[in-house]
Known about the structure:
This protein is an alpha/beta fold. It has helices at about 10-20, 35-40, 50-55, 70-75, 95-110, 125-140, 160-165, 180-190, 200-230, 235-245, 265-280, 285-295, 300-305, 335-345, 355-365, 365-370, 375-385, 415-420; strands at about 1-5, 25-30, 60-65, 75-80, 115-120, 150, 170-175, 195-200, 315-320, 350, 370-375, 385-390, 405-410, 420-425. It is built from 18 helices and 14 strands.
Amino acid sequence: MRVSIVGSGYVGLVTGMGFVKLGNGVVFVDVDDRKIEMINNAQPPIYEEGLEELMREFKGKYYATKDYREAILNSDVTFIAVGTPSREEGSIDLTYVKKASEGIGKALKEKDGYHVVVVKSTVLPGTTEDVVKPILEKHSGKKAFQDFGLAMNPEFLREGVALNDFLEPDRIVIGVQDERTRRVLEELYAPIDAPKLFTDIKTAEMIKYASNAFLATKISFANEIGNICKKLGVDSWKVFEGVGLDHRISPYFFRTGIGWGGSCFPKDVRALISKAREIGEEPLILEAVVEVNERQPLKLVELLKRHIPELKGKTVGVLGLAFKPNTDDVRETRAYVVIKRLLEEGAEVIAYDPKAVENFKRFYPDVGEKIVYADSAENVLKATDVILIVTEWPEFEELDYSGRVVIDGRRVRAAEGSARVYEGVCW
Ligand code: NAD
């Protein structure tokens, strides 16, 4: 099949390259000239394991353009994978989804054959039918479910293992209304061996929010118990190992630390809270989930101050800036909160991350310009004897932390085994 992908970021690029690997031709659409040029040179504009190799191997089977018309006229299915960020007060910002829908609608007007539009961006229940559909219909002059197909297919990939998650997902959820659209998506996803759940469109949208809200809750719950464990002198990791053995609970994604960040959980939980309030529901659990998560990274600095009460003028090393290992994504990273607090305390900060330094500087100029960056983790350890571990990059397990004070937000065993003073945030 010929597939076009509108929005070539973490989700769009991985999804598109996944479809290329499955034998489809793919056209990427983006508004960012730099990304288009890089994709056309088989260079990934983001870091994701295996992506560069895949782009090189399949060069010629995909290309990128700014031109919606060209992409829509030369494909059978279009995925909308643009960002859906939070507004200041937490509600979802649909600006990019609306723009993408307009561009696709205008191109659809000129298209003779049947075309299917699929919303892959995370959007609140009702968005595909009440926002995307009217825009597509207005600009195309055509009727959804009749002249063109429309579906909602939420994405569950995890950055860092995203290509694998595309090819071997736990499930594929497809929200459809009409048979023809369903058949097109069944065919497109046929090579992937995973449970496929067909629902109505609104339910598919909600499954994504409920999944992310539950995962965020699992971590905040673990951290709340972990904070109690810490005060009681109990190792919360052992506790959750024991808890996770209950098959009703499951051991996955059940670790204590300094909380969740990234491009999804924070904005999605906030958007769901905002929607709930708008419709007169008080989301008590979700509000607490966010509150626990906001406090959690600051525990690292609190623990540090137990060992070094005066941080003014002290150089503190920060290992990790990405919101999690194996990605260069820094959106809502805990590193920002931790470093901001360190600077407020008057500390000097030297930081290292294998992939995320440039993004960190760009996203957070307020703190990013006030700190020093080391070109290796070893050089952070050479520069100071006070270390905070913020992201658990595998290479941090290779370091010798002897003689150092280490406050660990993620549980790096090498630090636990070799530091002069070692404190884990929940263990
Ligand atoms: P991203 O910011 O990395 O990518 C979005 C891309 O869309 C950018 O390249 C941007 O330039 C482009 N874009 C913006 N406006 C456009 C327009 N009008 N036309 C064409 N391109 C446009 O975002 P992302 O992380 O890939 O997330 C995309 C969606 O997928 C979001 O709704 C997100 O919640 C959801 N999602 C993300 C993840 C993840 O791990 N990143 C996982 C599951 C779902």
